[in-house]
Amino acid sequence: QQDLLLHEEFGDKTIYGEFNNKRPNADWYRYATDVLIRLANAQPLAGIPTYGEKHCVVRGEYFTDWYLPAARGHATDPAERAAFQQVWQRIYQRLKKTPWCVSLWDYHSPNIMLVGPQPSLNNVGVIDFQDAIYTPFVYDLCSLLLDARYPFPADLRDELKDYFFKNLQNPCDRALFEEAFALMGLARNIGIIGRFARLTVRDNKKAYLSKMPVVWAYIDEALAHPGAAEVAEFLKQTMPKKREIA
Is 147 helix (H, G, I), strand (E, B) or coil? Predict the structure, then answer.
């Protein structure tokens, strides 16, 4: 057996490096979305892991185990933790009813390279996809358009969501798509808030505090969706008056 390695030089320009806290270039992001359209329309790869209930539930556990204690000054009650786990178990069952495809898992701005001088699909380089996994079809789209590193413009996000949906070969109902995007994005961002709290409290990495308002804005937007009612009610019952943890 002979192993082969394919190597290509991408340079050092990323979408994050170019557009961090600036208006993103719509053309580059449209081609980055084209990558996800290709994946959504392709046959899934054999032999890759599947996004399971635990992947979804653990996002809530990050929140109850790290964020809530830091924000409230005491450990989360086991009954609260169990209740939030059950919320995410039910959300996972709803996500199972959406189309699924291969996701690259870490498809976000630092891992998307601008290889050539002009926006084109051939000039989009992708790194860090060794954890590819079979997920609900909006997973990577949420990673791309709900960037935790800087506020992604809502108008461009809506434009690219529409572009993605209209180019699916076997689209689902639009309402199902919107609910899936809201719930998948909410799951990711609830988990991100929890991990940012862990990095701040356990690892003393205070820089993550400045990113929390960006993620909370995405959470607030998702909570307005009717499908997120259970999460909204849990937060209403458990959140302190102030969101800051330091």
Answer: coil
